[in-house]
Amino acid sequence: xxxxxxxxxxPSGSQQNLNGTTRWSTSLENLLEDPEGVRRFREFLKKEFSxxxxxxxxxxxxxxxxxxxxxxxxxxxxIYMTFLSSKASYQVNVEGQSRLDExxxxxxxxxxxxxxxxxxxxxxxxxxxxMANYSTxxxxx
Length: 141
Hints:
Regulator of G-protein Signalling 4, domain 2, disordered N terminus
């Protein structure tokens, strides 16, 4: 990293990091929009055994941006198999009645995971509880 010697220049790396962590503490969206924030938060969540929740959120946000129906169907199946099926490798905690019926995977639409994303209680817990821990001490990563 380049050393900054002029006080009128850009903030130093540690100042940029401080600005980043300050932004991260204001909202989960700010944290997830910053690649360094995502990297460090994922490391933190691995330690807290909650990484699947942020991965699910990111996958759902990416899914909403897909325009091509074939790509949408592929991604919908991937999200289902990774996060929602009974054999999912990163199963998220959603209420039983909110689980996605597999038949809906045949006709995907951009907001098909929205209810599950909203109902993901662990993600809300992360935002309300872990975010407070993380933003006060991001060096835990």
